[in-house]
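pinning this so it doesn't scroll away 📌
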Amino acid sequence: MSKEEFGYATYIEQAKQTIGGHLHIGRGGFTLHFGTSRPSGYDCDHVKSLCITAGLPVIDGREAPIELVAKLGVSGPMIAVNRHPDPRPWHALAYAGHEFMLQTCCEGLHEQIVRDMNDDPKWARHFIRSIGIEEICGQQSRRVADDGCCGLVLDWQLRLMPMTASSVKRFIGLHHAHCGIPVAWRFHNAVFNGATLIGVASSATLSPRP
């Protein structure tokens, strides 16, 4: 591994440990989003390959129509990185999570597509693939599922992956602060849906009560 690749690998690993961390590629180069850092550069395809191999979410907008890029840049939400997503509806100054929304010409068509996706998961997967979501995210989808809360979830298949103890504590502090952040435990793992961190699991030995 070259010195440059080692630097990229370090940044990519930090992005994987950050809630909402991802790589964004545009017509002017790439930007890695993690923590409070935003390193950027121009070696887009090489860094994209490294990120996909490492399982980091990738957003590549180079082939998107310039009109759509301009619209998203002006009115689309920002991705929440190392912070809570804002509640819907999202606007230009809001921070959104990794959820996705379908935009159609009318409400009737939107309802029909959502209903068809729920009724026929195989067709839903084909539809999502046809609009290029797998190429954008760098993952192969297994199915599209209804989350039970008026939203759709891309199921990339759950995976257990390593994560640092500090990142586990930060995740618990962000999403489960009401339970209290544990001080120590025996082992832990992160739970990913594709490249999106959705939970952590830890195991500790409880001290016996007197």
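📌 and the second one:
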Amino acid sequence: MDAKPAIEEIGSANQPPAVTASKENRRKKSETITAAPDPLLQARQILANGNYRAFYTELNRSVWNVVAHKLELPGSEMNKHHISMKLLAKGWNRETIGILENILNECEMKLYTPNYSEQTTADPSGCRDGCY
């Protein structure tokens, strides 16, 4: 009789329920992550329709939602400074964090500053007539 398969069975059968549950949760979580929809899909669709104000609204909402989810932050901790500190602690570089902050700032400027919004709410790609 081969003892090795029996030892492997005993080893897996004797794992604490928390370890088994933890492995199952990681498997489910990885399946969920791979099957997650594109968080910017709706923003892209709105942009394709030429509704730039709605695009900035949706982009702003989507970015905040993704960041809150990824950092597991409650609403009371959702501000740019706190997010920056959390991302630095997770090992993000300052340049990437700066890009994220610029995206959020640009969305806010387009949405909440009347003069800025009127002048620049045109095509966010920067293209005017004839850009391909």
